[in-house]
């Protein structure tokens, strides 16, 4: 016991010891994750339910899926954030990005921990293999920060991309809804037909409309189903459509006329947004004009005269 205490007392805690300790902790976490992944298993009842739910999926694939779910469930208390507000924010972003699985939040935090471990490993590698690097401390901090914030940036990109795709499918869906309702179809049947027609051109928005149709068919109010659509996608531009449809359904107004009026308003709004973007182009062109075009113009226009002037004054 005394020799062990003397050994610990002789250890000098400097930067090299600290990074060795960080690498040790990261290695232990990776080994524990691999161990949980290899030995993770579910109860026989859950395995039977998964096999019945899978249907035509092969037994080996269902077994791998169950092992992954079990591993994520075992890792959930470790990798998931304890902040309730942060978890809700990340869950909404995952929902807006199209990840509706129950373990999506756990997968995101597991990926975030993996990126953080990679960032710390890169920082430790820089410290040990390039100690004479000029900006070593800044590079190490940047590596750790990049590993920590990269999953959030990727998630934000997925959210923006999916919202842009959903927003792009709204005008076509409104035009098809107007045509279907004016041809005699009911609103639910017209919505189902539009979802089927948009499956090729706008699959993301068609999937959301299919979910709305399923909820309406199950007995959910039309306004509530569309409000759930706004919450799932985060596209607030169709809030006016939900209000107009709810008002028309309560007072018994014409849905086709309501859709036509909203389609015209939505088209005018899109035209105004395009005009606003076009009006900002001259202001944005000032900076590349100053940086790239004007210097070249001055070189071509004044350069020969300046060369002649300097040569004459030099003589």
TrEMBL record:
Transmembrane segments: 18-39, 104-130, 136-155, 286-307
Gene3D superfamilies assigned: Type II secretion system (T2SS), domain F (1.20.81.30)
Domain Type II secretion system protein GspF: 174-301
Signal sequence extent: none
Major subcellular location class: membrane
InterPro entries reported in the protein's UniProt record: T2SS_GspF_dom (IPR018076), T2SS_GspF_sf (IPR042094)
Membrane topology: Multi-pass membrane protein
Keywords, in A-Z order: Cell membrane, Membrane, Transmembrane, Transmembrane helix
Localization (cell): Cell membrane
Organism domain of life: Bacteria
Matches recorded under PANTHER family: INTEGRAL MEMBRANE PROTEIN-RELATED, PILUS ASSEMBLE PROTEIN
Protein name in the entry: Type II secretion system F family protein
């Amino acid at each position: 016991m005394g020799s062990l205490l003397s050994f610990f007392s002789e250890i000098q805690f400097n930067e090299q010891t600290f990074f060795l300790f960080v690498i040790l902790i990261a290695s232990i976490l990776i080994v524990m994750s691999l161990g949980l992944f290899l030995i993770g298993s579910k109860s026989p009842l859950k395995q039977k339910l998964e096999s019945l739910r899978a249907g035509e999926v092969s037994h080996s694939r269902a077994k791998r899926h169950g092992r992954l779910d079990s591993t994520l469930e075992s890792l959930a208390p470790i990798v998931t954030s304890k902040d309730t507000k942060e978890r809700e924010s990340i869950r909404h972003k995952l929902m807006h990005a199209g990840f509706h699985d129950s373990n999506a939040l756990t997968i995101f935090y597991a990926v975030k921990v993996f990126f953080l471990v990679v960032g710390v490993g890169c920082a430790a590698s820089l410290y040990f293999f390039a100690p004479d690097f000029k900006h070593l401390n800044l590079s190490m901090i940047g590596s750790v920060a990049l590993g920590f914030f990269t999953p959030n940036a990727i998630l934000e990109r997925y959210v923006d991309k999916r919202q842009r795709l959903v927003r792009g499918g709204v005008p076509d869906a409104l035009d098809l809804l107007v045509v279907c309702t004016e041809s005699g179809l009911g609103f639910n049947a017209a919505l189902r037909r539009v979802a089927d027609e948009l499956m090729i051109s706008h699959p993301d928005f068609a999937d959301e409309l299919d979910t709305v149709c399923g909820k309406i068919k199950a007995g959910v109010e039309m306004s509530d189903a569309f409000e759930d659509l706004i919450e799932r996608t985060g596209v607030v531009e169709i809030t006016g459509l939900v209000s107009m449809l709810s008002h028309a359904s309560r007072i018994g107004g014409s849905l086709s006329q309501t859709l036509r009026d909203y389609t015209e308003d939505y088209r005018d709004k899109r035209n105004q947004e395009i005009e606003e973007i076009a009006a900002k182009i001259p202001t944005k062109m000032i900076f590349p004009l100053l940086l790239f075009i004007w210097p070249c113009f001055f070189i071509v226009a004044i350069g020969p005269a300046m060369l002649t002037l300097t040569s004459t004054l030099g003589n």
